[in-house]
Specification:
mainly alpha; 13 helices; 79% helix
Length: 276
């Protein structure tokens, strides 16, 4: 290996290592604070915890109510992602492979919706949800998430399905499949990488959301996890270890998703550009 190659590798490796440490350190610091007592934190917030106790995490999960917030988020995210994938895959298949009047205008309208921030529609959305009785309900928040993230889902899946060779669809139609048969037997299996990628991204969007959830679920009983963590900041401003425990509980599911699905996420993101 030449000296120039070694130098190039060091030039790349050192900044990447620094970036990795900068990314990992906040999580390690939060976990360390969560293991401390209030006294240990006040005396020295940056030192290692003396006992590494899980009492604060148990307190946040049981007494503070993080368990209820956690299961609220699981229900809402699971239902939202399932509905997004169903509607997004149908619309993506139709826009990419079916010919009908107004399809181009419809796709441009979906693209335009990507540029509309939620703050623009939040007041009319809240009024509509209140009028139809969906405010502070699971279906109301699920529909709000679907409305917000469906254009993004349709755009990605349309781009992916556009790369599928038309001969595959034509062959399926010749074999006697209806449009729904082509969608279910051909497009769903072929689109599995993209569906997994879009599903994970939408799950992270919904899981990390605060604004939409806070607007649609104002009561404490129906709070999602991120809204619950935000509320801890005010309630436990003098008990930072408990607040850090809530942050850690909210971060662990996201970390697990990245650890176990990072390969699938990368494959799904690049699949639309490599098929053809």
């Amino acid at each position: 290996m030449s000296s120039g190659t070694r130098l190039t590798r060091w030039v790349v490796a050192v900044p990447m290592a620094a970036l990795a440490l900068a990314t990992i350190y906040p999580l390690v610091f939060t976990a360390n604070v969560a293991m401390k007592t209030r006294r240990e934190y006040v005396l020295d917030r940056f030192s290692l915890a003396d006992s590494f106790s899980f009492d604060n995490i148990v307190k946040a999960w049981t007494s503070v109510g993080m368990s209820r917030y956690f299961f609220n988020s699981v229900i809402v995210v699971a239902c939202s992602v399932a509905l997004l994938l169903l509607l997004g895959s149908m619309a993506g298949f139709a826009l990419a492979r079916l010919t009908f009047r107004g399809s181009s205008a419809l796709f441009l309208g979906i693209l335009a919706a990507l540029f509309v921030p939620f703050q623009v529609i939040m007041v009319p959305l809240a009024r509509i949800m209140a009028d139809v009785g969906l405010m502070d309900t699971y279906p109301g928040l699920i529909l709000a998430y679907v409305a917000q993230f469906l254009p993004f889902t349709i755009f990605l899946l349309t781009s992916y399905y556009s790369t599928v060779p038309p001969d595959i669809v034509d062959a399926a139609r010749i074999d006697g499949n209806t449009v729904y048969g082509v969608y279910w037997r051909i497009m769903i299996p072929i689109g599995a990488p993209a569906l997994l990628s879009v599903g994970v991204l939408n799950a992270l969007f919904c899981w990390n959301d605060v604004l939409i959830s806070l607007l649609m679920m104002p009561s404490a009983e129906h709070r999602t996890l991120m809204v619950g963590v935000t509320s801890l900041r005010g309630q436990y401003s003098d008990d930072i270890p408990t607040f850090a425990s809530g942050v850690l509980i909210a971060a662990i599911p996201v970390l697990v998703v990245y650890l176990f699905l990072q390969r699938q996420i990368a494959d799904g993101v690049t699949a639309g550009s490599t098929k053809g």
